Amino acid sequence: MVAKIHLGNSLYGALNYNGEKLNKEKGKLLDSNKIFNDGSGKLNIHRAFEDFKRWMPTHTKTERPMMHISLNPHPDDRLTDVEYARLAHEYMEKMGFGDMPYLIFKHEDIDRHHIHIVALRVRPDGTAISDQNNFYRSKDICRGLEKKYGLKPAERQRITPDMPITGLDPNGDIKRQVANIVKMVGMRWKFQTIGEFNAVLSLYNIRCEQTDGRVNGREYHGLVYFALDDDGKTIAQPFKASRLGKFSSRTAIDNRFERAKGKIDVTPTKGIVTDAMVISTGKDDFIDKLKEKNIDLILRFTSEGRIYGATFIDHNTMTVLNGSRLGREFSANALERWFNGDGQKPIVATQQPDVDRTQTNEGVNNEGQSMSSPPPVSDNGQPNRGRQNDTSQSTSRSQSGSRYQSQTSSGTQPKSDSYDQPTLPGLDLFQVGPGYDPQEEAFYRAMQRRKKKKRRGPII
């Protein structure tokens, strides 16, 4: 049996949550302690709230005076209503809440029936029951109750990085499924905007919306999650991030945006999308070819049917990218023009193969006469660096005094044959090139000293 404990300050909200389950005939009120219960299994929310208020102190320093507990036996355990009620009473007694007012509800909205308990944790004198080590005490109590009543051991399922993400099942525990999906998406995927985050969530029938506002003069910024069916319609009450866990909060998701910025590499995804676009004939063909490469394209439409958003979900690199991040040719406007406009396909530049780039680099090296290339051979078969046709050499200098030699086509022979000496490949670095002139070098250094002296100004 797994117990989940939530401390809060909205007693009426907890009563209303359980009351809605009962009104939809998806649960019943099993029993109560110090709170009125007519035995019909129904709940008068206003009457119950007034009863709880009678036990609450007028003044207390406790910020979270109530608690909402759920007890979840193993799915294979089948208990009667009387056994559920007895289990809940004994759990509350062992947790130290035997004298506190509380209500016990049974929820039947999923195949795995479970119990919800709404209780006060503040005594009439204003003191609160300690919540220290609640998790460990509750776990030990659950293990003891399992042995006493012959229940199957049940542990909370741990989320691991390699656990497969499954779509939302409307017949299952929706809140738990939403929490698990949001947590696993955040652990595995890299995204930088709320739109990209929503694109991944949409694969599993979940939508996230930002909530910003001001309450009692204080600003708040949060997230709300919606469970959807295959048609995009909401199938349950929205869940605030605080109900799912810290991993789903606005702060946690914003931090994931920042961490993803330095990890995302668009090159692999852009290459696949480019190749698919070049050979595609239209929208459906483009989407199919991307799916073959394990990439999903999520398009967002206005009420008039115009594409206003395009997001590429790359399952190979676990990266989510808005089309504009890949380039203008992949943006929503470009795809709208292709799919719904004049039919003009965006012009994309295919990536140049490595072989072509290698040949280009070799061509550049040949034009620049790199030092590692062998010298040309003269008519007599001997290496010759001085009789190279169609080349002349010029010398340029930077402010730091370094000199770079460049060769330009001139169609003239060298003026001097003093360098027509045979050289050995690999020893070129130790030989003086034809561009060296001792007088010119001395003049250049003198000019540099004169400029430096002028910058320092006259000596007074």
> Structural class, from secondary structure content?
alpha+beta
The biggest sheet amounts to: 5 strands, antiparallel
Proportion of helical residues = 25-40%
Strand content: 15-25%
Number of helices: 14
Radius of gyration using CA atoms only = 38 Å
SSE run: EHEHEHEEHHHEEEHHHHEEEHHHEEH
Look at the structure and give the mean pLDDT: 80
Q: How many E-type strands?
A: 13
Distance between the terminal alpha carbons, to the nearest Å? Answer: 92 Å
Q: For the largest beta sheet, what order do the strands appear in spatially? A: 1-3-5-4-2
Shape: elongated
Oligomer: single chain
* Regions with little confidence, pLDDT below 50 for 5+ residues: 353-424, 426-436
What can you tell me about this protein's structure?
With 460 residues, the chain is α+β, with helices and mostly antiparallel strands. The protein is 36% helix and 19% strand. It has helices at 11-23, 45-55, 81-95, 134-149, 174-188, 194-202, 241-244, 250-261, 267-279, 283-292, 323-326, 332-340, 354-368, 438-456; strands at residues 2-8, 27-33, 66-72, 102-107, 114-120, 206-215, 218-227, 239-240, 295-301, 307-314, 319-322, 392-397, 403-408. The strands form four sheets. Strands 1-3-5-4-2 form a five-stranded antiparallel beta sheet, sandwiched between helices. Strands 6-7-8 form a three-stranded antiparallel beta sheet. A hairpin with a 6-residue loop joins strand 4 (102-107) and strand 5 (114-120). Helix 3 packs antiparallel against helix 4 (134-149). The longest helix is centred in the C-terminal third of the chain and has 19 residues, at 438-456. The chain is elongated and about 105 Å long. The N and C termini lie far apart (92 Å).
